[in-house]
Amino acid sequence: MTDFKKLFKQYWQLGLVAAIAIVLLTIVSATGGDVRQSGSSYSIAANGYSAWYQMAIERGLKIQRWQKSFPQIIKNSKYQQGVALLQINPKLEQLEITNDQQKWVNQGNTIVILGVIAPAEEIPFQADLESSQGAVRIETTRRFITNSAKNGLPSDISKESILSDQSGSVITQFKLAKGRIIIATTPHLAANAYQDFRPNYELLAELVSKDRQQILVDEYIHGYIDRESVTDTRTGDVLEYLASTPLIIVFVNLLLGILVLVWQQNRRFGKIIIPKSPELDNSEAYIQALGGVLRQANSSEFVIQNIGKAEQLSWQQKLGLGKERLVEAPILITAWENQTQLPTEDLRFVLQLTARERRLTPAELTIWLTKIRTIDLQLNRL
To answer: Residue range 345-352: average pLDDT?
Structure first.
């Protein structure tokens, strides 16, 4: 009887600890959500920018994620001119441009900051504003008015509104010597939630790529730090880490540790289960082997002929031209114009390159495949 009471007491304690841990984790997951993830190009959430970043890559823009502090940009000789830095802030109360940032912009660079807090106006929350790329969907009542957007900037610099309505400006541009600083009242200009509003994506792409050779997306402000920066900034001890860590996280980790210890004391380990080796996919292995051979032989013409014909047959079918045989290029281009109302430059490029039957360089092959991907995406949206 004594053993039964002892066993019951142990499992009761285990259940209590598990219940507390579940409740705390639920609270943290529901309310914690790291606000820094808003605007990150890694995030697939509605307020993330992974879709826009992927579009920029497919467009062929020279873009990369930056996981270091701003001073590291200044120290890098590759990023002294012709660079655009995109910062998407979840909540930036006040714009503050440092002297180093101004000097860097003066050299011929651009900083684009989305999410600068501006005064709220008594206007509809949702508006479609005309831009160089078409109607842009804006969902905020905040507008820059008069000189309120010049916080942290010299008072004598020229200002230009890029996107605005009668209540004020949503996107404002400041010219500093050879460079520009562009700020927006909303951090969600081209977030994942706006994938159906193409002008939003195109406008942001235009802002960061105009006269720029390199685009850096600042992920450092979202908590992503590369290994080199972590090594350089790793100072202090465990106490300093705990002092800078929210108590709720420390508390939850402590409870989880106790839960593991209690579970280990009250449950025996079973027999070791050796995982089965994954079965070899012969088709995949063959494709990979063939790809390796073609790459070593630099047989890009083989790839172009096979992929190009298969893709053209697929496009013909989607455009109602059948897939029994390849139609002539002018017929396919005419059907594309009539049914999609989209430009034909990418389609003409792919068809011309496919018809030449010549060996391509790796760079040309990459561009060719990228344009095929773009055409596929455009047809899938019909």
So the answer is: 79
